[in-house]
Write a structure and sequence with these properties.
Order of helices and strands: EEHHEHHEHEHEEEEEHEHHHEEHEHEEE
Oligomer: single chain
Bound molecules: acetoacetyl-coenzyme A
CATH architecture: 3-Layer(aba) Sandwich
Distance between the termini: 43 Å
CATH superfamily: Thiolase/Chalcone synthase
Helix content: 25-40%
Low-confidence stretches: none
């Protein structure tokens, strides 16, 4: 049977960030609460000319070479940060990347889970049509109310994955385990710019969903816990991954080895939550921060989207995977950034949201090629530099 999975993976993060030490100082909180209690150092902050479309286009442009573009017949765009109630954000990316018109484009939503839904659907499609490729993009801006406990768990980023037959990076294995439950731990009614969240409850439900998804994975014949070379978890903040691995180790009566999760947290600690993209940022971080050769080794992945849908699945790292990684580019994106003062962060937090239908030009601030140039007659206009 043909192997299907991730051939290439790339992420993008804007150039501005708020150091959580700055937030702690402003709020008069012990910085250790964020550094150790939450497990985060920085939160990425988009500028006013960046949104889920521009950061998605940045991430995807790195992995779509001309020969791939010709074979891409589907773009799956996963986001919680929708910019339109009707039109899929991926259609803008499709145009910005000059993808072929004989292509389907659709947006998927279920909080932070939708990236995994997109990946699984892409694998199913390529299994049926192995000569085709699917561009999967997870792109989100996590923005909570200023002054709320969740403020320290904001962030922003996009991950793009090219799904193909005979993938260069990871084979996604067919067995997975799911857990769904209708709960209100995090939600965003149409009239709100920021989500409502029952924070403590959400962490409890995350762990219960992990247990449910793992049980289903095991019942479906999934790999044993001790076969996995590494684990990647959805990381709203990295301390959540620590709690998750403690729980999964305990369920499996195994040693709680932090070495199995630390490489997958390095990038997330510097970016913050990027909802649908977080698990895949963790996957990129893991692949680029494990020194040992992972060729042929299985890894466990856990995806959680509040509301709630969760999935545990496994993937096998492919021989030669290192040649496919964009490690230098990713490390440069993370190191070449600018720290914001608290006042500048608050100004950027208030992204313009004009309702009047007039023409609003966005000042140039993004570091990438793609920008939201203006909003006019309720239409968003994007351009590539
Ligand atoms: N030094 C070290 N640690 C400290 C400390 C200090 N000085 N002060 C506090 N801490 C520790 C606390 O002991 C606590 O640790 P434990 O969780 O191990 O008990 C931790 O820091 C957090 O502190 P609080 O208990 O005071 O919690 P908080 O009021 O800061 O809220 C939160 C934390 C609930 C996660 C909040 O940030 C939040 O609501 N975030 C958004 C929701 C979220 O991310 N939920 C995750 C699961 S849902 C999901 O995954 C989907 C998604 O992406 C949203």
């Amino acid at each position: 049977m043909t192997k299907v999975g991730i051939d290439k993976i790339s992420f993008y993060v804007p150039k501005h960030y708020l150091a959580l030490d700055t937030l702690a100082e402003e709020k008069g909180i012990d910085p250790e609460k964020f550094a150790r209690g939450i497990g985060q150092n920085k939160i990425a902050v988009p500028s006013h000319d960046e949104d889920v479309v521009t950061i998605a286009a940045e991430a995807a442009s790195n992995i779509v070479a001309a020969e791939d573009a010709d074979k891409i017949d589907t773009v799956l765009f996963a986001t919680e940060t929708g910019i339109d109630q009707s039109k899929a954000a991926g259609v803008y990316v499709h145009r910005l990347l000059d993808l072929p018109s004989r292509c389907r484009v659709v947006e998927l939503k279920h909080a932070c889970y939708s990236g995994t839904a997109a990946l699984q659907l892409a694998c199913g499609h390529v299994t049926r049509k192995p000569d085709r490729k699917v561009l999967v993009i997870a792109s989100d801006i996590s923005r909570y109310d200023l002054g709320s406990p969740a403020e320290a768990t904001q962030g922003c980023g996009a991950v793009a994955m090219l799904v193909s037959a005979d993938p260069g990076l990871m084979e996604i294995e067919a067995v997975s385990g799911c857990h769904s439950e209708d709960i209100m731990d995090f939600w965003r009614p149409n009239h709100r710019k920021t989500p409502l969240v029952d924070g403590k409850y959400s962490t409890i439900k995350y762990l219960q969903a992990l247990s449910g998804a793992w049980d289903d994975f095991a019942e479906n014949g999934g790999r044993a816990f001790n076969e996995m070379a590494q684990f990647c978890y959805h990381l709203p903040f990295t301390a959540m991954g620590v709690k998750a691995h403690r729980k999964l180790s305990s369920i499996n009566e195994a040693q709680n080895d932090q070495g199995l999760i630390e490489p997958g947290m390095v990038y997330n600690r510097e970016v913050g939550n990027c909802y649908a993209a977080s698990l895949y940022l963790s996957l990129t971080s893991m692949l680029e921060n494990v020194d040992a050769d992972l060729s042929g080794r299985p890894v466990g992945l856990f995806s959680y989207g509040s509301g709630a849908v969760a999935e545990f699945f496994s993937a096998v790292v492919q021989p030669g995977y290192r040649d496919q990684l964009m490690e230098h580019q990713h490390r440069t994106l993370l190191s070449d950034r600018t720290s914001l003062s608290y006042q500048d962060y608050v100004e950027m937090w208030h992204a313009p949201d004009p309702h009047d239908g007039l023409s609003h030009i966005t000042p140039h601030a993004a570091r990438g090629r793609f920008r939201l140039t203006h909003i006019d007659e309720h239409k968003r206009h994007y351009a590539a530099a």
